[in-house]
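ENTRY TYPE: protein
CONTENTS: sequence, structure tokens:
***
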Amino acid sequence: MMETGYAVAGRYKIIRPIGEGGMANVYLAQDLILDRQVAVKVLRLDLRNDPSTVRRFTREALATTELNHPNIVSIYDVGEENSMQYIIMEYIKGTDLKKYIVEHFPIPYQRVIDIMTQILSAVQNAHAHNIIHRDLKPQNILVDEDGNIKISDFGIAIALSETAMTQTNTLLGSVHYLSPEQARGSMATKRSDIYSLGIVLYELLTGMVPFEGESAVSIAIKHFQDEVPPVRNYDPRIPQALENVVLKATAKDPDERYSGVDAMMADLATSLSASRAHEPKFVPSKADDLSETKVIPALDPEGITQTNNDEEQVKEAESTQKKVKKPAKSKRKWWLLGGGVVLLLLLATVIAFAVQGSEVTVPDLTDMTQQNAESALTDKKLKVGTVQKTTSQKYSKGHVIRTTPKAGLSVKSKSTVNLIVSSGRQKYKIKDYTNQAYSDVRDALKDKGLKVKRKYQSSSEVSPGLIIDQSIAAGKRVVPSKTTITLTVSSGKPGFALHNLSNYTKQGIQDYAAQNGLTVVFSEEYSSSISEGMVISQSPASGTMVQEGDSVSVILSKGEQPTEHHSIVTSSSNSVIESSAPESSQSSESSASESESESESESESESASESISSSASQSSQSSVQSK
């Protein structure tokens, strides 16, 4: 298990595991140089010492690097680090076709044809390079988020040139999609892939595989003994022409199947046509035997046969040789035969050397235009292989990023050199960021390499801190390192300067507050300088920016505060003191004086008023005397 954060080859930083298989584990990683997500396929630890598995793993990389097709997962890099074999490939965000069928079944017929057309186009490209997949099944067919198809896992794919002279006795591939000839132990051909494609089409139309069984062997036997059940038995609405595509692709005899993937694709394209509405059902001729009967090797739980190792094959060969009685030969014949073999070996060596020629060094083509690079290879007597396009932040469009084999390696003359050419800087698709938090969007865009600017704008509909508008429209693709995006962020509801309320009446303030959506809190205080009912102060102060819903405190004047006063009444016979001061111990005597003074005539009161300037002690004494 590879740890998160580990950088394979110092470049591909592991993010998390995304899949496990019988041969390898797959991880999601970040390409630190090209700033993109990739899938890293790493050979399992327990299989790294198995030469046959390593060869099979390497074969996958070599087979796929020869293919350049939009419906085939691209291989970016291959290598080995600390005895760990790895393949860097295109990361497809989505699901596999097996899960897609479960989640979307029943699938409209036109969508089925669209999916199959993409699959067939990819397989046709592989067959054009003489590569047979041999393990076509929904689990190896990926569906991205846009519904596009990508075929992966060429782990048991093999070039025809490697199988032309050898017939394998092993079964490879998932048994539910296995062709009859593979089940019998015969060599896989292009028409074996067509059979598997027919089973995939069957599953797209019915949601199930045609054969089930208690064991892998029982399912394999059904593939070469039982006819594939008609899909119209499951769904009678399926057009006969579409069912015929399944029946012809899954014919037991390979000769009765489509001659090539292109023929199947052409037939499938018109299967929903009204002109084929009354097409008769395809009936293959009965073939009792496709080839001589062979013993089917033991199948493992995944439907893949256990490969006989070299040691067992050697023992079988030795045992066979012991059973054959060798005729006696004279020593002279042995010498002649041996000399002939030596001469043949020498001749073969000379011919091989003449054909291969001398070794040459792969030139450094980095940053050359593709045309110049091809000319340089020709000058070195090397052949131009595949040209793979990929984005690059460093190299201009049309310039070589690197070669395979890499520069500086010695190879035979006339060898093929593959080119990895820049398709330009990697572009980022701008999304719709409105109504999203500015801080989150800013961080995400900066991580992609974009420069972000912010400006504020008030809004009654958009909450503060959320994005109202963006300077680059959603859907546009940009080069991150050369792009600056401006995000308009809501500052909340529109603000305005608070009026000076000093000349407003209470009613005027209430009207002003209602018009602007403000809340007013009133309080009152005495003031010797502000008229009653007018504003003494306000908070916030005038000119302060406020928004709808804010609160304003206003203090109103109660007018001048009342002052304390004294009234003193005197006369010749008595005196009265009126005071707002607290009562003294003489309060009872004062009350008596007041009652007596109330009975005096008006003239006496006027006389008492005139004597108000007399001393307090004299008034007090007069009061006592009046009693």
Residues 524 and 556 are 5 Å apart (CA to CA). Confidence is low (pLDDT under 50) at residues 156-173, 287-330, 568-627.
